[in-house]
Amino acid sequence: MARKTTSLAEQAYQTIKNRILDLTYAPGMSLTEAMLTEDLGMSRSPVRAAIQMLQAEGLLVSDYYRSITVREITDKDIRDIYQLRELLEGAAFQLIFTSGRHEEYSYRIEEKVVRMCAAASDPYAWEVADTDMHMEIIGILDNDRINRIYENNLSEQIRIGQYSVRHGMRIPQTNERLKKMVRYMRKGDYEHAYEILRDDHFMLGRDSALRRK
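RE: above sequence
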């Protein structure tokens, strides 16, 4: 019985988390156990366990009166996330070239871009594929601590990324630009390749997300 309860709690956790990440449960939205129980068609016990897990991750917050809210995304959150990404990915992208591994990584990143193109009609799936592409870039650093920092912020990256798509970033154009970035990487052209990563992902992504209000 305990094994079944754990399994249901995990199912509830993943379903609620997916709905937070795809903005079905939007930032700032109030939730209740009763509402989630009805949405998921589950009893309160697994839903309550899922809520506790999501509170521990910071995706759900509760106040003094124990009301449950999807964590807001502030302008500072957006700026902080993009600053973190530019610092980590900028250093990683440069290392890809200085280590002479730009051709190897062009194929690795191209594989991720192909998946992004396949997900072009679904902004949430596209954002998930996009985060995989960026994780591939920082993989060159071979630093578990940096990976953990990045992974701890993936949920916010996915949510913020969808704001970017809704308010200025165009998926088809971004995919085409990434294909061009891959071609520059294969030629060993760091300047033009990084210009696309910086302008299309860091600057455009940040500025589009900030226009969400």
